[in-house]
Structure formats: structure tokens, C-alpha cells
Design brief:
The chain has 510 residues and is an alpha/beta fold. It is built from 19 helices and 23 strands. The protein has a six-stranded mixed sheet with strand order 18-19-17-16-22-23. A five-stranded mixed sheet has the order 3-2-1-5-15, sandwiched between helices. Strands 4-7 form a two-stranded antiparallel sheet.
Length: 510
């Protein structure tokens, strides 16, 4: 009998699909990435071809097996992570009917109003734990029904992006609770499709896949997939997870008291909770998490790393040129500049609302603001102010979670911004928590590989698997807590007094 020594994690993202082969300690053996395009046929629309995802999945699986020299028979199982909310519609033969409308598409405002009217605002939040949002899948289904009735009439199966790849690998129409939570069709407290919502929206439950818990085996590699990937027929494929839920497992945020903050293009504060907690104001998302019987609560800042990227691109050409000469990242030089400036950026505050805001304000009209500019301020002050403003916005998220009774005793830092020791120092001071990083940078791919190790019986449960496969660096402890609080207290006063002005600005026509 061959000893199963490896697991595969597939991360089906927006820019590309990354497949990683891990050993049972979480060490990377081989990885491969293939990118694909996004289509924007109209302003505010975003689509991808589901078969691009499948092709990338097939090719990257084959690549990691070939690179590693590992026998496919030694691979115990496969987990899939994916971009959430995308709509995949299949005909009776399992073929894609149209390009997928993906998570960042904004065409469905009218359908969100329709959903709220059909279900009722309070019932919608009680059942799906969220208000109707343009990013979620339910509004996309209604948009196709309202605007492309001939496509909707042919639809026999509705899947999420990663679940379409699962179907091609196994022949099974299935999903799992964490990704299904973002469809706005799942009963979040009871972890099953909501008959009430489906009936109100007139969506046939038979269109949807079977719902599993994230570590459960959902199917097995079939003959056709074996031939194109090199995986052994019968290799188990577990439920996997949506991208943030998978990232949580990949950094060990799988028990009460654990949370992580991501500073990528957007910013996320994600906390695990064994007891479901729903914000009646809909400011944060509550989803089923990848740990069976548990949930996560998540606040989202629209323009986190995007704020610093915007500033770099518009105002830091000198630093970009210097970085090229020194063969370092421009952000490394910007970090050094910001570190020379005191907390509070010499009384300069930044509101990071370049793309409107999600948590806590739910305001598409909000816009970025530098408040307190003086002739004495330098570029270094502005860089630090941007970093602090993003941190204060993430602190808003943390405080809402605390209001909801979600508790955490340390914070993991992820994403590009999380690699900055200065930004981690700001997070630790503002949150008044120790901040750590994971040694592995594989995040979602490692997370779903861990789920595969659990589903195939290598480890008894998700926390045990994380203990074996996730390693953390030493924490940065909170410092200058009072100084950060003084600046944050002023920051908090700014949005309420600017709210009406943001609305007036959005309506301004000259």
C-alpha cells in the first residue's frame, strides 16, 4: 500500500489560478500559476470565461506533478479555493451558457432592490446575514433572468467559480458552506439552502449544487480529468472554501480568539466565531467558515493597499526610480520615509474612501480626503498619513466586531501591506493586540490543502491539521496605544460631518 504523503491546494483567483503541492507539514513542494483575462464589456461590468479557469486548473495541476516528480498515487487529496460570488450557468449537458459575471461586477443595483422587496430587508439579514449587495450571486441570477431570458431558460445548473472546476474534475454538482454563504441564497445560521429565499426569488432549488462542509469529500477525480491533469482516478476532492475562508485556515485562524487582517488592494478584518453573530445594520459580512459548525465575521475596507498604490503611482516617481537603481521595492523606500514621521503624521489625517466605503459606512459616495494639510507637510507625512488612515479604517472594522461580541486575543497580518513591519506596528497599536505573520505566504492554497488533509483522514479536524501545517513568526506587541487612540478619535469624527457633502459632490454637475 502506498503511503499518502502529499496534498494539493488550488487557488482559483481573479487574475489567475495557482496550484501548490504540499507535504503533510505544509511545506511547498512545487507550485504553478496561469493567468487569464477579465472582460469589461461595459463600464462597471466584469466577466470571465469559466473554461479559462478549468484550463488553468488542469495545466497547473499537471505542472506541479511534473515539477515535483511525486507519484500521483502519493497525493491523498485535492482542495479548491476560489474567488467568491461569480455566477456560472450551465446547460443540460454541463456546458457554460455565458461568461461568468464575477464578484466585482456592479450591474445589479436594480436586482438588489428587487431582492429586498421580495424577501424583506429584515428577513434577508436574518436568513442570509447580509443586505442585498451587487457583488453577491443572487442579484446576478436575477439580472440574467431579467435581461437574458433566453439564457436563463436553458440554465440547468448554477455553480460558483471553484465549483465549476470541481464539476470538471469529478462530474459532481456541489459546493460548500463558506463559498455558498456569498450567494445570498444560503440560510447562514442553519448552513443549508434557504427555501424561503429561493421561493421569494422564484429560483428552482434543483439548479443549485449539493452543499457540503468544507473538509468533506465532494467527489473523486474522474477518468477524463485524470488524463489531462495526471492525477490518479479516484483521488478525493474536498469541499474547499471561498478565498477568505481558505486564507483563514492557511494562517491558522480556526478557533475563537483568532483573527486576521489583510491589506491587499482592499482590506479585510476576519474573525472566527463558534457562535453566530449577525450585524442587524449589515455593515459586516457573517458567513459560514471552513471549520464545520463555526462562522466568521468580516469587515471590508474598499481601498486599503489601493490607497498607497494610488499615492505611489501619482506622486512617487522619484522613489520608483531610486528603487529601480537600488533593486528594491518602491514600498520599501516609502516605508522608510513614513517611519521618520511621528504618530499622527504631524496632525494630518487621511480618509481612505477612494472607491466609496463598505465597512462601516456602506456609502458608495464617500471619497478620499486629506484633512489638516499644512505648508509644513512633506511627502513623507502624506505617506504615513495614508498608512495610518487605512489602519484607522481597519480599526473601525475591529470595533464593530467587538461591539458584536466577537473576541480575539491576537491578529494575523496578511497581504502585501502585512509584510511591512511599520504597518504591523500601526495595526498592533491601533488594535491593542499582538500582530503576527504566518511563515508560509501561500494563504488560500495552503488552507484548502489543509482541508484536503482533514477530509482524507490524515488529521482528525481542522485545528489539529493547522497545528501541524501552519507556522507563525514571533508577534509584534502593541506600543504607543494611547497616541494612536488620540489620532483615531479625531479620525472618527470626520466621516459624519462630511457624509452630506460627499452626497452633494456626487450629484455635482457643472
Amino acid at each position: 500500500m502506498i503511503d499518502m504523503k502529499y496534498v494539493i491546494g488550488i487557488d482559483l483567483g481573479t487574475s489567475g489560478t495557482k496550484t501548490v503541492l504540499f507535504d503533510l507539514n505544509g511545506t511547498v513542494i512545487a507550485s504553478a500559476t496561469i493567468e487569464y483575462p477579465m472582460y469589461q464589456p461595459q463600464n462597471g461590468w466584469a466577466e470571465q470565461d469559466p473554461d479559462d479557469w478549468v484550463s488553468a486548473g488542469y495545466q497547473t495541476i499537471r505542472a506541479v506533478i511534473q515539477k515535483s516528480g511525486v507519484s500521483p498515487k502519493e497525493i491523498a487529496g485535492v482542495g479548491i479555493s476560489g474567488q467568491m460570488h461569480g455566477l456560472v450557468m450551465l446547460d443540460e449537458n454541463g456546458n457554460s451558457l455565458r461568461r461568468s459575471i464575477i464578484w466585482c461586477d456592479q450591474r445589479t443595483a436594480a436586482e438588489c432592490v428587487e431582492i429586498t422587496e421580495r424577501v424583506g430587508y429584515d428577513r434577508l439579514i436574518a436568513i442570509t446575514a447580509n443586505p442585498a449587495l451587487t457583488g453577491f450571486t443572487a442579484s446576478k441570477i436575477l439580472w440574467v433572468r431579467n435581461n437574458e431570458p433566453e439564457v436563463y431558460a436553458k440554465c440547468r445548473h448554477i455553480l460558483l467559480p471553484k465549483d465549476y472546476l470541481r464539476y470538471k474534475l469529478t462530474g459532481e454538482f456541489a459546493t460548500e458552506v463558506s463559498d455558498a454563504s456569498g450567494m445570498q441564497l444560503l440560510d447562514i445560521p442553519n448552513r443549508r439552502w434557504s427555501d424561503e429565499v429561493l421561493k421569494a426569488l422564484d429560483i428552482d432549488a434543483d439548479l443549485l449544487g449539493k452543499v457540503y462542509e468544507s473538509p468533506e469529500i465532494t467527489g473523486y477525480i474522474n477518468e477524463a480529468a485524470s488524463q489531462v491533469t495526471g492525477l490518479t482516478v479516484g483521488t478525493p476532492v474536498v469541499g474547499g472554501a471561498g478565498d477568505n475562508a481558505a486564507a483563514a485556515v492557511g494562517v491558522g485562524v480556526v478557533a475563537d480568539g483568532r483573527a486576521f487582517t489583510t491589506i491587499g488592494t482592499s482590506g479585510v478584518v476576519f474573525a472566527h466565531t463558534d457562535n453566530i453573530s449577525i450585524d442587524p445594520k449589515g455593515r459586516v459580512h457573517t458567513f459560514c467558515c471552513a471549520v464545520p459548525g463555526a462562522w466568521h465575521v468580516m469587515g471590508v475596507v474598499q481601498s486599503a493597499g489601493l490607497s498607497l498604490q494610488w499615492f505611489r503611482n501619482q506622486f512617487c516617481q522619484e522613489e520608483i526610480a531610486q528603487a529601480k537603481q537600488q533593486k528594491v521595492d518602491p514600498y520599501f523606500l516609502m516605508d522608510k520615509m513614513a517611519a521618520e514621521i511621528p504618530i499622527g503624521s504631524n496632525r494630518l489625517l487621511y480618509l481612505p474612501y477612494l472607491m466609496g466605503e463598505r465597512t462601516p459606512h456602506l456609502d458608495p459616495d464617500a471619497r478620499g480626503v486629506f484633512f489638516g494639510l499644512s505648508a509644513m507637510h512633506t511627502k513623507s507625512d502624506l505617506i504615513r498619513s495614508v498608512m495610518e488612515g487605512v489602519t484607522f479604517a481597519l480599526t473601525d472594522c475591529v470595533n464593530i466586531l467587538r461591539e458584536m461580541g466577537v473576541r480575539f486575543n491576537e491578529m494575523l497580518a496578511c497581504g502585501g501591506g502585512g509584510s511591512s513591519s511599520l504597518w504591523r506596528e500601526m495595526l498592533a497599536g491601533c488594535f491593542n493586540l499582538p500582530v503576527r505573520t504566518a511563515k508560509s505566504k501561500e494563504g488560500p492554497a495552503l488552507g484548502v490543502a489543509i482541508l484536503a488533509a482533514v477530509g482524507t483522514g490524515i488529521y482528525p479536524d481542522v485545528p489539529s491539521a493547522c497545528k501541524a501545517m501552519v507556522s507563525l513568526n514571533e508577534p509584534q506587541l502593541p506600543a504607543n496605544v494611547d497616541s494612536y487612540k488620540k489620532a483615531y478619535d479625531v479620525y472618527k469624527t470626520l466621516y459624519p460631518v462630511l457624509k452630506d457633502s460627499f452626497k452633494s459632490l456626487s450629484a455635482l454637475s457643472i
